[in-house]
## 1
Amino acid sequence: MTYQHIAVQQDQGVATLTLNRPGTLNALNLELAAEMIHCLDRLRDERKTRALLITGAGRAFCSGTELSGGFPDDAGSLLESHYNPLLERLLALQFPVVTAVNGPAAGAGCSLALAADIVVAARSAYFLQAFVNIGLVPDVGSTWMLPRLAGRARAQAMMMLGERIPAEQAERWGLIYKVVDDDALAGESQALAKKLANGPTRVYALIRQALRESLQCSLTESLRIERENQMIAGRTSDFAEGVAAFLARRPAAFKGQ
């Protein structure tokens, strides 16, 4: 498949996926969503990627769903056919995901940015739950993610007031991991993705799954999941390498196996 709305590069286990519609501030449409789904499926199936970095071309990360093309009578059908499958695929990946938020992340673009395991934002970036401003409800996982990231009160205010949340405020709220100067974003996010790509990838997958499940289950269930995951992790060659490296006082050479 030839991509028209995204660009994808591979380098030493890091796949960089760039939303590439700068003229629309990387607005989402069905074609872009379909390309992202295809790309994520390909990266999953090829099993060469050990970390994924998502960013936007130009001066925005993603301005949300494109409005100029209109909506069907059932606006929720777009979620069912494209945007929800995209989010579910992103969360199900067996390698870590980093987003480098280089500018506005609004509406569905806000959801996409915050769905990553680690979110790094440029100082000039902002996050906006824009749905209420056009008479729609938050979607693409916003009502699930935001209360868990920032707490119910802040999430509800974001959704009902439709106000911009600057990157530094998002960092204080715990929405994102880190704010960096604009000119440092590309380098810092790439370095972070490369660090993850050189780590114990199978363990990262277990951590991603366990954290998601912990938000919906009891302490007892979380303890059970930790016990099962530790059994799996303890049988990996990366665990053996990690222990050997620790005892030898040398850096570990993880293989993701």
Note: The chain has a mean pLDDT of 93.
## 2
Amino acid sequence: MASQRDVRNRIASVKNIQTITRAMEMVAAARLRRAEERIDSLRPYADAIRRMTRQAAEAAGAVPSLPILNEHESTERVGLLLVAGDRGLAGAFNSQIVRAGVAAGREYDSGGVKSLYFASGRRPASSLGFRGLEVAASFIGFSDRPSYADARDIAHRLISAYVDGEVDRVEVFYNGYISPISQVVRRETLLPLQQASILDEEDGSASEGAPSSGEGPKQKALVEYEPDPKEILARLVPDYVEISIFRALLESTASEHGARMTAMRNASENAGTLIEDLTLEMNRARQAAITQEIMEVVAGAEGVS
């Protein structure tokens, strides 16, 4: 059995750790509130850009013959962007993105398609390197508070890779924010536009909350484009890629703060449970020591008599 001093030192160490985890939980909670405000502000604009791009693509019919809009004849290389954090201590936040991206890469490799990895965040970059996977480009140092300029830099690199023929398809993996205790891994196709995830989305904004007239589905309003839809589409696609990446960065940031807050709360609770167990162990050790001393005194008294 450990001595009282050893147990007391362990209790002090656990209490220090508990103080740190509680402080980290409060910091993460404060940052989470700010991240939620940024997401709420961005989502309407991001949804509008994606909706406009989808509608312009439908109106254009044939996609304009521009490098960024041309669909490659075959898919031989796929660019996978993994969006996670620069730091750990956030539960499975980072690892689940790496697992999802690596699983997708292996799936492509098994089909004869080569994967090219891009990483946003120090953790996915280091994890991919540890697994022996080459990272074409990494973007680090802003996961706590990403800016639109950071998203533009990432978008410029991915668009260049697609236009130059370095990749034939671009996908992004990130943690979608639902609540502080719930994040879901999302996988979206950014390029080519013909296969992008936005073309699979349904625009429910027109019918959402509208009363039912019983006359079947409501027709969409006629939109007149000036200039023509093809030119508008050519202007919208770079903005669509940038805003999609920026949204992924903000969703990932909020998810990271929520995951870290939850992880630190669990760590604090586990530390409290460990302190109780160690306190009980120390009390037992003290009781055993007192009992031993009493027995020695009684044995000494009997020896004298």
Note: The CA atoms of residues 161 and 167 lie 6 Å apart.
## 3
Amino acid sequence: MNESVAPRRPTLTIGVLTKNEAHRIAACLQSAAFADEIVLVDSGSTDDTVAIAQRMGAKVLIHADWQGFAVQRNRVLAQATGDYIFFLDADEIITPALQAEVEAAVRSNARAVWKIHWSVVAYGHELKHFLSQSSLERMFRRDMLVEYRGVVHEEPILADAEKNAPRHVFHAKLLHYSRETVRGSLEKLTQYSMLGAAKRAAAGKQGGVLRGLASGLAIFIRLYIFRLGFTGGGAGFLFCFFIALECFFRYAALHYDRGFLSEDVGR
């Protein structure tokens, strides 16, 4: 008598990048605990991030030789064993509603790419009406994803045969604790401005104060007015303003610091 064998259940790896995230990594990893595997690549934390992650069962690798976000994501990818991989940042939390959608997507065994919406939390306030970016590709069948490229705003590269794979968007939002303090925003301002300038210098682009003002003003109007940042009060203003400052200083540095730009800007 032949007995049918139940098909193997598809598995999920959640990948996380960290550096000095002790104050929030537990909440992040707790929200990812439903995954079959959590792979965490740390960039040389000097706080308790690594100890907390190990205590919570994550597979932790330490790579303090910072070469950019893409390199760190590729290190996660190299260690992942799940059929699917979801990339989660340390300042993000998967809500129960999003967890249900992710689990359903994994069960479907579909060859596809899934995008996420953010619900931004800035300076202790959730910007509930802010229209966040919805084109962030975060979940893939692992065998479709070749690598990531780029030091900042890194891009997933799919195998040639998979480039036209279906794209789906999760309806539930991913909580993104984007900016918790003004001090942290100032530190991020330096990193993202200089990395963005280096990326544009490598592409042969030109900078300058006027270009920076135009870029910063355009992004501020888009975020604060058209994406409803103004509905978030003071927190909404600061969130949009710091992003606009990054755009301005990116082009200012591209002109005035061009000979000193480097992609080696640590986290």
Note: The first helix runs from residue 25 to 31.
